[in-house]
Amino acid sequence: MESYLDNSATTVCSKRATDMVVRLLTEDYGNPSAMHQKGVIAENYIKDAKQKIASTLKVDEKEIYFTSGGTESNNMALIGASLANKRAGMHIITTGIEHASIYATTEFLKEQGFEITYLPVDKDGLVDLDALSDALREDTILVSVMQVNNEIGAVEPIDEIAKIVHKKSKNAIFHVDAIQSYGKMIIRPRKSGIDMLSVSGHKIHGPKGSGFLYIRDKVKMKPLILGGGQQKGMRSGTENVPAYCGLAEAATEMYENFEENIEHLWNLKNRFIEGVQKIDGCSVNGKTDMTSAPHIVSVSVDGVRSEVLLHSLESENVYVSAGSACSSNKPAVSRTLKAINLNPKLLDSTIRFSFSVHTTEEEIDYALSVMGEVVPKLRKYVRR
Amino acid sequence: MKQSFLIKYGEIAIKGKNRYIFENALVDQIKFALARLDGEFEVTKEQGRIYVHTDGEYEETIDALTKVFGIVGICPTVIKDDTGFEDLKKDVVEFVARHYEDKNFTFKMMARRAKKTYPLDSMEVNAALGEAVLYSFPETSVDVHDPEVKIFVEIRDKIYIYSDEIKGPGGMPTGTSGKGMLLLSGGIDSPVAGYMVAKRGVTIEAVYFHAPPYTSERAKQKVVDLAKKVAVYAGPIKLYVVNFTDIQLAIYENCPHEELTIIMRRYMMMIAEHFAKADGCLGLITGESIGQVASQTMQSLMCTNEVCELPVFRPVIAFDKNDIIAISEKIDTYETSILPYEDCCTIFVAKHPVTKPNLKSIKKSEKKLEGKVEDLFKEALETVEVIEVK
Fold first, then answer.
1. B214 contacts on A by Cβ (under 8 Å)
2. Secondary structure (3-state) at B240
């Protein structure tokens, strides 16, 4: 038996998305910029993909820009908006629990002369709204907050944050990293007051190398990738038609069966939490009620190094991640876990389980039984 | 274009009656090194010299040859038939034209007339060829005491023209000094130790102790990668991967913690020696260096050494870390060695390990393993994974 519980790292590409990718690689493979018929066909595929994605967010298809994935979307949003709006101010606000693709980018912008404020979070990973309100200034041009934290599954109060931002700083653009939330939550950028939104394809059963950035009409942006002027000059380079259309199929699937999918995920998550809490030494981090994300559970195991636990589970075909899988192999301490003030001795003893619509109850039960066997064994051996 | 190289070797030449064994081994190693490159090649032994003739890429060939132990120098050589002295003059001038872009140098002709029927003697050849070079390239000048370039012309059945000597690695050809078993970890020192002993002609086998889940698949892959890098010099390496977890846990459960590392290393030596003897190795090789860590003090080394019957060779025993790093950079193992995949074993490292272990006390502690570790030891030997690293 195998139990793949690392769906926040990446997911299996769905059949429908895969079929689309293959068709566009082997049959309708034209360059959308070509003047002949094959080009027109490819261009229509892209239009169609944009429409499909726009309809999941109830926005205009003209506001969707395809990228190579979440990291590029986040880079494009932050650097593009900062450069285009720096005359209005040089102040940027974000949080202390963002993904590396936000954190590394704000640190880069700091080197370029921007001032960055990192907001604190509470023990559940929720942004301190008073601190946000205090930090906002007239020269604040950009606020970036993730909707769902990738390590502990905290859901940030995006609507409230947007209200506070737009009320206090007229010039501020509000960017949301929705890489872990898109497909698992209903998102309405217009209603919520979101100006930019980053999404990755391979986290929702689309192909790797696909993503998009929603940019609300009239947001001033500068492109990062220059060239032939594709995507209205905002992101040059021949469109990766197979990846973008695969992403659109995956997104459509996620929202077609949305209610059912979410119910399934909650069933898995509750089942898992109930089981894991019975294992000696295991504790679940952050909120676990309906205000948390339905697919992520962070578990600390007292006295066991996360990497050792991960390899033990792996030897029984249970796949999880330690810390954040996206942030390279280096055993660095997680900024998120530090920010929620996790007991320091658990920082290196925390693993993440993440589920998908394809995960079954049997996989959950199997993973729990393996945990139940492995954890007591490993806890016997601590450094003395 | 066909290119020839004269291969110079040092120590082999003085090995008396065994000389042909060493020469043949060197020829084999050169063939092994060149076989990986594109192009046809031929290795010949003529009058106590080894020549390589190849139509392969020049830089690539040099790079491969500078990694063959036993080679002291490599001279790019032009080989011609004797078609008269006028032709030889032209050939030497052409040789200078092709090998030196900047002709602003001092030189000396170094003719050697081995073929006594040649119409001119060495002195006359030197004078006439020197004049020809000076005439063709007025920027050059002759300096017989301290020349920048020595141009060698050897007149034998054929004529050999060469000048620069590219330094080889020295040492002895692999396969001429028996076999040794290297204890290979993922660190910096052990690959260097393996390289150094291989340089003396020793064929290397290696053993790695894997401790899943405390060490990861990536840590194991790293050791395979390191073995591959050493194999570039040492030739193919037979790598034993021993699953050491259960023995380690048994030691952890039964023995005093400050002695864990010493006892663990004694078991590693015993296992390494088992495979060494089975394969006819004549010694163990480790990357230990006095005082580097608690388990490498003189006292600790004495304790770990005590379990072995075979000699244990420790080529970096008196090297400082920086010196070892310098060699690892030279042989290109450093970058791989410092990849961070193996710090999960820390639970098996006592916070305050003994630095001056007492053999009696260690043996007393090991008594506690009796009846518990024997089966695990046997199992570790039986479940070993063998990887042929090329």
1. 308, 311
2. strand
Q: For A381, which of B218, B252, B339 is closest by C-beta distance?
A: B252
Asked if A318 has any chain B CB less than 8 Å from its own CB, the reply is: no
In the block, tokens 């973008």 appear at: A244
Cβ-proximal residues to B77 (8 Å cutoff; 6+ apart), any chain: B4, B5, B6, B51, B160, B161, B162
Cα distance between residue B294 and residue B357, in whole Å: 9
**C-beta of residue A145 within 8 angstroms of C-beta of residue A158:** yes
Kind and range of the H or E element at B376? helix B374-382
Asked if the C-beta of A38 comes within 8 angstroms of chain B's C-beta atoms, the answer is no
- Distance from the B343 Cα atom to the nearest Cα atom in chain A, whole angstroms: 9
What would the pLDDT profile of A110-159 be if each residue is shown by its tens digit? 999 999 999 999 999 999 999 999 999 999 999 999 999 999 999 999 99
Beta bridge partners of B326: none
Contact B340 A305 (CB under 8 A): no
For B31, other C-beta atoms within 10 Å of its C-beta total 14
Which residue in the set A310, A315, A383 is minimally distant from B347, CB to CB?
Answer: A383
Q: What is the complex's ipTM, to 2 decimals?
A: 0.77
Q: Region of A120 please: left (phi>0), alpha (psi -120 to 50) or beta.
A: beta
> Is B343–A315 a contact, with Cβ atoms under 8 angstroms apart?
no
Q: For residue A384, list chain B residues with Cβ-Cβ distance below 8 A.
A: 257, 350-351
SS3 content of chain A, % helix, strand, coil (to 5): 45, 15, 40
Q: Is A331 at the interface with chain B, CB within 8 A?
A: yes
Q: Looking at beta carbons, which residues of chain A come within 8 Å of B349?
A: 383
Interface A:B, Cβ pairs < 8 A: 42
Q: Which domains does chain A have, with CATH numbers?
A: 3-11+258-380 (3.90.1150.10), 15-255 (3.40.640.10)
Whether residues B350 and A384 touch (CB distance < 8 A) is answered with yes
Shortest alpha-carbon distance between residue B291 and chain A (Å): 23
Question: Which pLDDT tens digit goes with each residue over A247-282?
Answer: 999 999 999 999 999 999 999 999 999 999 999 999
Residue A53: name the closest of A255, A195, A207 by CA: A255
- The C-alpha of B305 sits at a distance from chain A's nearest C-alpha, in angstroms, of 26
Tokens representing residue B170 in the block: 């020295």
Residues B160-181 as b/e (b if ≥16 CB within 10 A, e otherwise) read bbbbeeeebbebbbbbbbebbb
Domains, chain B, with CATH or none = 3-167 (3.30.2130.30), 179-389 (3.40.50.620)
Q: What is the largest CA-CA distance in chain A?
A: 72
| Residue at A328: amino acid letter | S
